[in-house]
Amino acid sequence: MEFLIIWFICGVIAAAIASAKGRNVVGWFFGGFFLGLIGIVIVACLSNKKEEEKYRQQVAQENRRLREKLDQERLRSEAFRQHVAGRLDSHDAQLGVDTRSLQAALPGPGQFEQPKFPLPDELESLFVNDTPPAAPAAASAPPAPNSKPSGRQWYFERNGESHGPVLEPELLGMFDDGRLDGATLVWTEALSEWVAAKRVKLLKPHIQS
């Protein structure tokens, strides 16, 4: 008789815990009745269905609120677009132009010609190769005096300090009159690092031997 009372109490406790967690009260009453303390421990370790349901409702409510807000923003955006389109149409009617057809005639984003930048191989052509290929004598001659001067800017090193920028004709003149020599370090945007002037094809003809 005492065991029946203990089992009954365990069943009642298990049923109370199950009710608080939104579980099956009758099922867990018999679970506590037959399993005793083990049934109480098991139901106590189960998740709370009431809290889970409350959380799901909160998430669903927040999602609905966000969807409604997004729909309102879309409606406002569409109304503003229609308002702007109507204003543009009225201005077009007054001015006698059709901006819609002009906009359609404009080139797309991919139709503009992209600027061309020197490729690495083109930049390397400024250097003197260790074993240059055979070339006509005219290829190594300095540019003609009446050629159009380049607008490239250069920097050069002297006494451990960098100087510049100077335009290319001025730099060539400094090599022509001997103020700079082949060991002078130079740099321009076409070069990846400071190099000796004697390594640069453009400068080599102007270096005093």
Describe the structure.
The structure is a single chain. The protein has 209 residues and is an alpha+beta fold. 51% of the residues lie in helices and 9% in strands. The protein has 7 helices and 4 strands, in the order H-H-H-H-H-H-E-E-H-E-E. The chain has helices spanning 2-20, 25-35, 37-45, 49-95, 99-105, 120-124, 168-176; strands at residues 153-158, 161-167, 185-187, 195-196. It has a 4-stranded antiparallel sheet. A hairpin with a 2-residue loop joins strand 1 (153-158) and strand 2 (161-167). The longest helix is centred in the middle third of the chain and has 47 residues, at 49-95. The model is unreliable at 109-124 and 129-149 (pLDDT under 50).
Category from helices, strands and their pairing: alpha+beta
What is the count of helical runs? 7
Please tell me the CATH architecture of the domain at 120-206 by its name. 2-Layer Sandwich
Shape: elongated
In the CATH hierarchy, the third-tier topology of the domain at 120-206 is known as Dna Ligase, domain 1
Assembly type: single chain
* Strand adjacency order, main sheet: 2-1-3-4
Mean pLDDT across all amino acids: 76
The CATH class of the domain at 120-206 is identified as Alpha Beta
**Alpha-carbon Rg, integer:** 43 Å
User: Strand percentage, roughly?
Assistant: 5-15%
Tell me the total number of β-strands: 4
| Parts with pLDDT < 50 across at least 5 consecutive residues | 109-124, 129-149
The helix content, as a percent range, equals 40-55%
Order of helices and strands: HHHHHHEEHEE
Largest sheet: 4 strands, antiparallel
CA-to-CA gap between the ends? 122 Å
